[in-house]
Each structure stands twice: as structure tokens, then as C-alpha cells.
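Hey, quick one: can you model this chain's 3D structure?
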Amino acid sequence: MTLRRLLQTALLALLVASLCLVGSGPARAQVTKHVKLVSSQPLRGGSTAGTQPVVNGIRMALDEVGSVVGDVAIDYQPLDDGDSAGTWDPAMETANAQNAAADSAVIGYLGPYNSGAARISIPILCKAGVVMVSPSNTYPGLTKPGTGTADEPFTYYPSCRRNYARTIPADDTQGTIGAAWAKSLGATKVYILYDDSGPGFGKVLADAFRTKASVSGLLEAGYEHVAKADTYLDLAHRISSSGADLVYYGGVSSNNPGFVLRDLRRAGSTARFMGPGRPGGGGISDATFLQQAGAPAEGAYATNEFWAWQTFNGKASDFLTRYRVKYGVDPGDYAIYAYDAASAFIAAIRAAGTKADDRATVLGLVMGTTNLNAALGGWSFDGNGDTTFSTTSAWRVVNGTWVLQGSIPTVVGVCVAARLDPATQTVYLPNITKTLGGPTGFQTPFIVQNTGTAAATLEVSFYKFSDGTCVTRRSVSSLTPGSSYADIPNNDADLPANTQFSVVVKSFGANVVSVVNEHAGTGDRAEALSYVGVSAGATSVFLPNIVRHFFGYHTPFIIQNLGTASTTATATFRPFAGSGSVTITRTVAPGQSQFIEPNVELGLADIQYAVNVTATQPIAVVVNTHNDDPSVANPVAYSTNGIATGAASVYGPYAAKNANDQGFTATLSTIVVQNMGSSTATSTLTFTPLGGGTPIIFTGPATAAGASWAFDPRYENGVAGVTLCGVAASAGCLADGEYSFVASSPGGSIAAAVNVISPTTAMGYTALAQPAAKYFLPNVTRTLGGASGWTTPILLQAVTATGASVEWRRFSDGALVTTQNLTLTAGASVRIDPRNVATLSDNTQYAVTVTGIGGTLAAIVTELNFQGGDGAMTYEGFAAP
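Sure thing. Here's the predicted structure for all 881 residues.
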């Protein structure tokens, strides 16, 4: 008997003994129901070397629990989606997905093996509510916006809840890990190249490397596209003269990166050379690269698309031992990812209990997997369905051959030193989150638009709420005039998950503005909020409408210090009705944020308050208004900015009374007006029908300094609880419909918060105090994420303008796509629906500039999503100085 067989026999004996001990415990619960898991991969021909270990990994996870969880038996069926040669077949993958969808016992789909096959099966199973977990798909576009084609990943989830996750990191993670590895190797200055191996590979990997390199403190010597050629002497001389000590190549060997390295050495450069890898091709770690480069290939580096079993450590080593005992062979490339995919289903079935056979329940639990401690160690699925696990293996050319070097874990962000030269403008974002509350918790993509006339470089710093530490600081270069840059924290590998941040954006070279979109939940429990970044704080900020346990609503607000020293912020709460005030304080360090949650503060009653926040340093405040307790069937939420500057007149481009707002019926707008002056004042509200018509004027009550009053259009004269109005206009009543409004207090200073609410949605904004001849709108889309995805109608309110010019620029390259010229009626609003602008493209983001003709105007953007839940939010346009 060989030593290997002796070792297997001994380990098997130990395993049997341990199972006997387990069997001596309490008896299993009687099985009362069966559920089924299926997998899909080529099971014949040349693919079996890779796919059989996947089946083995799944079976091993199930066998270790006896294929029973509680009273639920788990049946498993591996499906073949390949031809006799082992190549995946579209027709077979379609059939597998359709059969799984039609089989009511199937609650999960493990796979498919190939990313191309996933493009077929995801939408089929998404519509059926069947959750998928792949152990081997690495194409980023399946989950991550901006990494594949323009319509990815949205096209895979047609009006259905996201149902796809993966336990293996996507390809772009190789770029992130590569930059961390470059830093650990001692690199200081990098030259980044990418080829045409896209979508989802070359440039995507190079950009991921670039982002991580920036936050790791690596200097960028160059960044450029490389076309396939036989010689690269000009490029090699540019790199050599740049002083770069490491070159990163995002691409594949068939595009001749080996020739780049060959010519680099001929030009006298000793810079290290690194790229992505994939055994058998698909990166640079193959024989083609070695043949191209010749002797200069020696010492080249490559990351790997998976964690090679030869470099396992920790819990993965335990898995390796158990796998060898069970099957008598090594596990191959994807067995450990398959084991953990099955483990995620086992955990979900256990948590589902009596609902283990309910697809929707299992889908939510699998997609919400958090801190699963399985073979790979602890990991979670993020909001896109991507794993937080990111360890891979390293390759290096040694004696003319690619040799495994060990494991490379990614390193979470580095806060490099901030620039010391003065910024052209600084924008503060008080509340930014990454998967706050779990994988489907709050995430906050933010958009920055260049409103100047020259290119800008951005420095973006993230600070933790919990202790104020700087987590990461990154640089974004060459933001052209009028164009926008988007950051999606959920996609940022340098940020820790389940964390809340304050963010400071410094722009060098041009003025900028920013808008933040906050999202949480899925399906009917989805929430959407939006607020705008603040560039100039104030020592006194007004919040017209703060509530505590008020008809289910609560209003936590976040205070960010925009100053240079720590400050104590004092929030004074004044009841809408009655006297007596309550003060609450927070100490806030420079650039950082603290929050106040009225629901948990002592001394506050369950009523509405007008709040004034004061400090010795300039501050910014954002209010999040929620009605989202677990018992609420259709949770809703919206954000508004605190108001630093009032005016005698403020402008609201949109208001409604029982209106059909772009498909959201029974939409209603309550308006809360706060007196920002120093003495009692009376204000009026003037409503004009959307598109123009006869104005209707209402007069509010005398309001003390700092206090607020509310107008509810459902009631006569806007006084809630008095006489309900009918559908048509009458004395003291608006007709049902859509309006713009102006709130005025001659000689005074007021602010107004507008709450736009339907039975299933809520959005809010603050009336604009500074009408201007030009407005910037950083984020506008025709449809983003499919026909039911995000569309963003613009509301333009004419103050004195008689017309407007509207310029649309693409995010991707800043190109001017189209210009509209509109006629306006003074005092009235018009709606621009991007879906009716024929020259715009779907699944494309635009930065918009609106210029008034003949006078000033006000502008807001409503962001609407028709995929269920609270798919509505609003942000205010940015007036040009």
C-alpha cells in the first residue's frame, strides 16, 4: 500500500469515528419536506476535468450534513449543458434553466459553469424567482454596472428581483489585487496599459488596478490603450523615460504583451511587468506570453482568477484534506467555490425553517448571505451578488516557466497623504455607506459633475463615522468640463462593508457639484433617497420638518463638520404647535459626521418639530425621512438637505394633489415652511398648474422665528384635519393635479421642504432660494437598467426666463449628445421626460446643463424606477454662481 493510500485510510478512519460520535447525539428530526438543488455544467468531453470537481464540491457539502437540514431533505441533481466534446451549448443551458424554473421543488441553481451560459439562464430563472450561485463565472458584467456592455447587468434582471450571486471573485478583482501586490513588492510608480480584450477584461482590469494603485499611494507614470502589434519601441521608450518601476498590462497574451515586455527591456527599462492570469489562457500566464517575450519574460508576475489549491491555508487547508479523503484526488480549480456555494444554500434552508420550500424566502436569504464561515473562511455577498472573498494565487516566471508563488489577499484601503495645495472647490457628502445593515442594506452611489471650463482632478477621502479615521483616499484625473464621474461604494474593494462614511471631495482645476443616491432593500421593500453635496457650510442650518414616531415616520439627520477645528453642534427642536424647546448636542471633528436619531433621544415627544442646528464651525446637514419599520408593507424614504440660506421667495418646481405622477397615482405634496428670520412672519403659497394656468394663492399662519407650518393640499386652506377638499377647485381648495409653487414672505427669510408621497413611494426636496440663469444636473438617464429601470424627468420652473437651452453630455466621454431649446411661461413649470428625447440612449448616464433664455429659472430632477418598491427620489439642480 502506498504512503498516499495509507494516509487516506488513516484519515478516513478518523472521519468515520468522528461521524459515529456525531451519530450518537440526538436523533434527526423526521423529514417532512423535500427541496431540490440543481447544477448546470458540461459533464462530458474535455470539460469534465474542471466540472467534475464542481459536482464533487457540491455533493461533499451536502453529504457532510447528510443532505438534511432540520426536517428538510435536500435532493441534488447535476444537469449537463454541454455537447459530447464538453463545450457548453446554449440550447441545453436554456432547457436546464426552463426545466428548473418549471419544477416547483427546485429552490436553487448552482452554476452555470460558463459566464456565457449565465447570460442565458439568469433572466429565465430571475422571472421564476429561482436564486443562482455560480462557483466559476468571473465575467464582471453579470453583476457590476460599468464593467461590461452598456446594458449590463440590468438586461439580465428584466423587471424581477436580482437572483444571481457568485462565490468566485469577478475578473476585475485581479486588477485590485494586482495593485495591492505591486505595492507590497515595493513599486512606487506604475505605468498602466490595457488592450482590446473586452468587455469585462482588459480595460476593466486596468481601471481596477488604477483605482487601487491610487489609494495605495502609487504614482501613475502613464495610462494608455495598446493596440495589437509586433513591435512597441515607441511605447517602450515612453515607459522607460517615465521612471515607472512597474508596468501593469490589462489584457491577454493573444494581443502580444510579451512583445511589449521584450521591447521594454530593449529600451533599457528594468520595471517589473505584471498582468492577470488564467491557466490555459485568458491572461498573460501562458506559453504564448513566454514565447513572445523570450528571455525578458524571466521574473514577470501574474495574478490568478482563482485561489489555487496548492496555496490553500487556514480553513481551506482543512477542506483540501477532507476532499482528498473523500475522493482520493486533488480538488481542481473550482471545487472549493462550489462547496461554499452549496454551503450558502444549506445556511439559507436552515434559516428559512418552515419556508425552506419557498423560492422568494430562499432567494432573499441566499442573496443576503453575511459572514458565512465555510471552506474559504468568512465571506458575504455584497449588494451586487459578488463575494467579499478576494484571495487569489500569484504566478511568476522562474527559469522560463510560470510557477505558483503563494496566496495574495487583497488589502483594504490605504489613506495616502492629502494634497497640500489649495483646492479649487471642496464638496462635502455627510452620509455615504457601503452595504450598511447587510448585503441589501444602504448603499450610496454618488456623482460629481465638473461645472467649470477646464479639466479637474478629484481627491476623494472617506472617513469612518465610528471613529473618524480616514479609510481611503483616491484620485480621479481628467474630469472634463460638463461631464460627470460616478463612484459606487459597493464596488469599491478598498472600503469595508457594512460601514458608514463621511466623504470629502476636493477638486483641483475646476468647480464641481455632487449628488448622492441612497438605496436599500429589494423588491417591494426597496427604498430610494437622494441629497446633494454641500460646498459651503454655515454656522446655522434649518430643518423645517423633523419628526419622532409621527404616523410611522422618523427622521434621523447627519451633521458634517466643514470647518478646520472640532465643533459642538447644537440642535434646537421647536414643536410646530405650542411652546417649549429641546436641545441636543454632538461634537464633530473636521470633515467627519455625527447623527441624531430623534426616535431614541430623550425629552422629545412623538410630534413634528422645526429644528435649527448651530455650531461654531461651518456645518452641513442631511435629513433622512423613513417609514420602513419591518411591519410596514411598502416602506418609503427620502432625503433632504438642511437649509443654510433662506429668501423672501423660494421656488418649488413640482407639487401635487392626488395626481398621477408618471404612473405613481394618488401622489400628494405636503409643504413645510420654516421662518428663518428673527421675528414673527406670515408667508403665502402661490400654486400654478404644471405647464401654465391661473395662479392660486394661500396665506399661512403667523409663524414665530425658527418655527414651521405645514400645508396639506387635501384640506381646505391646507390645514390638516379640517375640511377635506373635493376633486375640483373650490374656495380654499386646489383641484387635483400637478403644480409648481412659490413660497413668499415679503421682507422676511423663509425655507420650504417639499414632501412628495404616493401610496408606494416618497421623495422630497427643498425649495430653491436662488433662481439662476444656469443650472447643472449631474445625473440624468433615459432608462437605466431596462425599460422599467431608472428614468429621470427634469422639472424646470420659469422665474423670469422665457426659454431654456438644455445640453446633454455622456458620462463616459463628456461628449455633447444633443441640445434642446424650450419655450417657457413665466411662473410655470415644464417637465422634460428623457424617454421622449429621441437622440438619447438607454442604459446611459448624462450630465445636463440648463441655461435660461431671457431670465432665471429653478430646476429639480425626479429619479423614478418602476421595478417595485419605493422607486422615487428627487434632487435639486445646482445654480451656477
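One thing worth noting: The chain has a mean pLDDT of 90.
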